[in-house]
Amino acid sequence: MPSSILLRAQFVYQNYDGFARCPVFAVSLARAMTSDINLSKADPQTQEFIWPVAKDTLPVCFDSIPNSGYPVISSLEVRPVPEGAYVGGLGGSEKFLRKVYQINCDSTNVSLL
Q1: Who has greater pLDDT, 98 or 72?
Q2: pLDDT band for position 113 (50/70/90)?
Q3: CA dist., res. 45 & res. 24, Å (int)
């Protein structure tokens, strides 16, 4: 079993139910609240976490917020992280890393002077 995993979740609403009411909900891993998902601000939305694991299971919970629609998820990827990677960033078994933003470094859009 790896010491850490990459957990990537994608949330897509796109008015699939015809109610035009983007859901807002919270996501928790094990007993830790990890993020709030507000699909009225960004739809679709992707969240990524590096999470230390000690068991073969990881409880993932989508916590509904009253009068804010029903939680939705489109994909959930779980991948092992190489042994020893991100050890300094995790700082212990009760900590996790969360991607805050991502920069696209695509070389096809770079203009050279």
Answers
A1: 72
A2: very low
A3: 12
Closest by CA position to 100, among listed 41, 35, 51? 35
Query: ∠68-23-64 over CA atoms, to 5°?
Result: 55
CA dist 103 and 113 (Å) reads: 22
Task: For the chain, give every domain's residue range.
Answer: 4-103
Q: What single string gives the DSSP state of each residue in 14-70? A: TTTTSS----EEEEEETTEEEEEEETTTSSSEEEEEEEE-SSS---EEEEE-TTS--
Is the pLDDT reported for residue 28 higher than 60?
yes
Measured on CA atoms in the order 32, 42, 71, 74, is the torsion positive or negative? negative
Residue 11 has what pLDDT? 93
Model confidence, pTM = 0.72
Phi, psi dihedrals of residue 26, rounded to the nearest 5°: -110, 150
Residues 6+ apart with CB under 8 A from 35: 26, 27, 47, 98
